[in-house]
Design brief:
Elements lengths: L1 H7 L8 E4 L7 E6 L5 E6 L12 H11 L9 E5 L9 E5 L9 H7 L2 H20 L16 H20 L4 H12 L8 E3 L8 E3 L5 E4 L6 E3 L1 H10 L24 H12 L6 H25 L9 H23 L1
Helix pairs in contact: 4-8, 5-6, 5-9, 6-9, 6-10, 7-9, 9-10
């Protein structure tokens, strides 16, 4: 890999000091420091056999390359290696950005003083508004994915996952089926497709020392789709004052100083002019989808396909039920 970088990334001079960066659950991410102190980051898939289309490094590379000239903050795209013989998988090199991802409360307490938290939240939602304002064709991402029926396709995919996982998980819940039928029957018309991140949250943003979003990371599942679905996913991760904690504990945005989810929704509406009167539909959809994803993970643990060391299976099961409960509450608000 050092030999390839020496030939393809002019700004870096090996040999490098390598260190594994924390965070994430599968892709391997390393900080490189060359002999002159220049820093960059290498990202590659996990070791071993991969499912087709999984851990798509080229997707991440093409997105940060396209967004680099825009006002959406991303690391600089420095080099992409498609020759798997170099290191066993495709990988890319991106610029190093100073900042810290906020995975939990301890990260917030350590890296983001309370006076900066409101400003970071506002910048977080403003950056998402900037992303959703871009015309995919104009930035070279018009072929990133299918444009039509984003929510419908997701409903089909994740309902199949629920059905396939129910047996191995030895757990089913009638709400999963009722909500899927409701969401299919009441799907709103999708507006113009925009680039959607798919996992936008403070865990995938680098918070700078100035309390701004220094860069958005992890574009692995980005595609074209409905921006309101992307917004609701981001807002669902935001804590609302007085809201009960999930079975897995308080998230990072429950720290003092952050604005409420409802305030961020209003700010997005003001920035984009989009009508959010049907936002609870997308809240319901994302709560249901998250429950399906956790259900699949729970099933793999129950089958023995993933090691259960240090895994609280009871908390996972409760998280599925909690997600369905919140989805059902959003459905009730829509029907009120």
């Amino acid at each position: 890999m050092e030999a390839w970088i020496a030939s393809h990334v002019e700004a870096l001079r090996p040999p490098f000091t390598w260190s594994r960066l924390p965070g994430g659950h599968s892709n391997l991410t390393y900080l490189l420091t060359d002999q002159q102190g220049a820093r960059a980051v290498v990202r590659r898939p996990p070791l071993g056999q991969l499912l087709p289309g999984a851990h798509d490094m080229f997707r991440e590379w093409r997105v940060i390359s396209a967004l680099g000239p825009t006002r959406v903050p991303v690391p600089a795209a420095l080099g992409f290696c498609e020759d798997e013989s170099v290191t066993g998988a495709r990988f890319y090199v991106m610029g190093f950005v100073e900042g810290h991802a906020l995975y939990g409360l301890e990260d917030v307490r350590r890296w983001l003083p309370e006076p900066l938290r409101r400003g970071l939240a506002y910048d977080f939602i403003d950056v998402l508004a900037e992303l959703h304002a871009l015309d995919p064709d104009e930035v070279g991402l018009g072929e990133l994915g299918k444009r039509e029926n984003y929510v419908g396709r997701q409903l089909s995919t994740w309902y199949k996952s629920w059905l396939a996982s129910a047996g191995p998980a030895e757990f089913d819940d009638p709400r999963a089926h009722e909500l899927q039928r409701f969401l299919l029957a009441n799907a709103p018309d999708q507006g113009p497709a925009r680039v959607v991140h798919g996992d936008y949250g403070v865990h995938n943003c680098l918070a700078g020392a100035d309390g701004k979003v220094a860069a958005i990371l992890d574009w692995e599942i980005s595609t074209l789709g409905d921006p309101l679905a992307d917004l609701a996913y981001a807002l669902n991760q935001w804590h609302e004052p007085g809201e009960a904690a999930s079975p897995r504990g308080r998230n990072s945005t429950s720290a003092p100083g952050f604005p409420a989810r409802s305030e961020l929704a209003r700010r997005y509406a003001d920035r984009t002019g989009r009508d959010l009167s049907n936002l609870d539909y997308y809240v319901c959809f994302n709560r249901w989808k998250s429950a399906c994803i956790i259900h699949g993970v729970y099933a793999r643990y129950r089958e023995g396909k993933k090691g259960v060391e240090d895994i609280d299976l009871d908390a996972l099961r409760l998280s599925i039920q909690w997600g369905l409960k919140l989805a059902d509450e959003a459905r009730a608000r829509l029907q009120a």
